Amino acid sequence: MDIIELPKDLNEKLFEVLEISRSSGKIRRGTNEVTKSLERNEAKLVVVAGDVTPAEVIMHLPLLCKEKKIPIVKVSSKDELGVATGIAIPTASAAVVDAGQAKALLAEVSKKILEA
Q1: What is the per-residue DSSP string for 36-79?
Q2: Residue-range domain boundaries for the chain
Q3: Residue 113 and residue 30: Cα distance in Å, rounded?
Q4: ∠ CA(107), CA(86), CA(32), 5° rounding?
Q5: Which of 43, 69, 97, 104 is the most interior residue, by most CB within 10 Å?
């Protein structure tokens, strides 16, 4: 499973999933936390930023996601991802652990990701 870039309409839904999950569920921010959630089989969806330098910081995530059969998508910037996850600093990656009230929306986005 490769990192998928979503079309603009799905990208907006993805950020909506992150924002709703942040308030009513649980998300993990940062590559170390995302890695731990994948290793513990907690992650439902992984999001990485496209402007991470060096790329080696997130290079292991697609392999872990493929092994665990977790969808992984790329967004354009760390800044965008940081804002969507509710922190004032950029973040390289985030994972939805518990979608909370965004379960249906997460299922819809995950289905489209797996179809791509």
Answers
A1: HHHHTT--SEEEEETT-SSGGGTTTHHHHHHHHT--EEEES-HH
A2: 4-115
A3: 22
A4: 80
A5: 43
Contact between 80 and 15 (Cβ < 8 Å):
yes
3-class SS of residue 95: strand
- What pLDDT digit, counting tens, does each position of 65-110 carry? 999 999 999 998 999 999 999 998 999 999 999 998 999 999 988 8
Residue 72, strand partner residues: 46
Q: Which of 84, 96, 89 is nearest to 16 (CA)?
A: 84
Smallest CA-to-CA distance from 40 within 97, 2, 79 is with 97
